[in-house]
Amino acid sequence: MKQTALFKQRFFAAYCFLLLQIVLFSAACKKDAGTMLSDIIYVRHAGADMPAYIYGNVNKKVFIVVLHGGPGDNGLDYRHGRAAAELEKEYVMVYWDQRGQGLSEGKFSKQDVTINLLADDLFALLRVLKYKYGNDVKIFLLGHSWGGELGTAFLLNAHYQKEVKGWIEVDGAHDIPKVNIETAKMILKTANEQIALGNSKKEWQKMVSEVEQTDTCNITVKQGRELNKKARIAEKLMLNDGFINKPESVSLSDAAVWYRQDFLTGSLSAVNFYLLNSAFFNQIETTSYTNQLHKITLPTLLLWGKYDFIVPPALGYSAFNHIQSSEKKIVIFAESGHSPMLNQPGEFVESVTEFIEKFR
């Protein structure tokens, strides 16, 4: 009888302990769930209604606003892959569709669209974020490709620059005339190296013969678009020959297809945007901010793929040399092309996290 009573006491104690653990686990889950945002807002400014898709952990009150590439891409393209998933565990990611792109809507004159107007749109987005989530939120900008040009234009406004804690430029095209010159030089240099190694000789030789005809002292907008197409082909060749990591969880053959699709969609998005507003596209293609980069004084992180032919690393080094921040750093990803967040997501997240934790 004593053994039976002792067994019942131990069973009851174990049952209570297990029940307590379940309650505590449920409470923890509810608490964790409360820190995770999943929201969509529309920002109305100057005739445009622009969606921002907001996901991530609000606990640190750090918001990373993603400025997508293109022009003609969309914010949610940047939610694909491990890098975005990992960053959302620590911070709130804001995937914004810029004016006239993605699922943005509205009634506005195409002739009125300028880089500065999109910078004003971005300021409106930041004000809405602070209004909804609190003036104490800490905002970092992350601009990729064309987003680097837009982010730079925004930061050149001293009033706007005060709105953010830090600038993360990822293979950013803040000076497209310089991009075109450096792309031509990089294609020729890499082509000669790869031909000497016996890699994809026929394809590289064809590119060399075409690029050598380009007068790098006088590259037209049309020639710049042609160089952009060749840059995408060059990255595909480097991927096939093992110099660029395939996007994580994608087979090499699928990665080759992905790069081919990126080439096609990149070209189509540019053509689509050009048809939407050729004057704006031409402004983007002919704008150089290099000589104004000294106006950027906030903490800056420059992230570049070593084999980015679309916006070569020379642009990253140039930005590093001209930006006047006392806190700046450049990281070159040795096995990446134009999108290191896809080619080396672990290292990419590590660099972004280290930067944000230092300056948030």
Helix share bin: 40-55%
Q: N- to C-terminal separation?
A: 64 Å
Run of helices and strands: HEEEHEEHEHHEHHHHHEHEHH
Taking the sheet with the most strands, its summary is: 9 strands, mixed
Sum up the overall morphology in one term. globular
- Report the CATH C-level class of the largest domain: Alpha Beta
Return the domain count.
Answer: 2
Mean pLDDT across every amino acid position = 87
Stretches where pLDDT is under 50 for at least 5 consecutive residues are: 10-32, 263-272
Structural class: alpha/beta
Q: How many alpha or pi helices?
A: 13
CATH-derived topology of the largest domain: Rossmann fold
Using only CA atoms, what is the Rg?
24 Å
What is the name of the CATH superfamily of the largest domain? Answer: Alpha/Beta hydrolase fold, catalytic domain
Per CATH, the architecture of the largest domain is 3-Layer(aba) Sandwich
Q: List how many beta strands DSSP finds.
A: 9
> What proportion of the residues form beta strands (DSSP E)?
15-25%
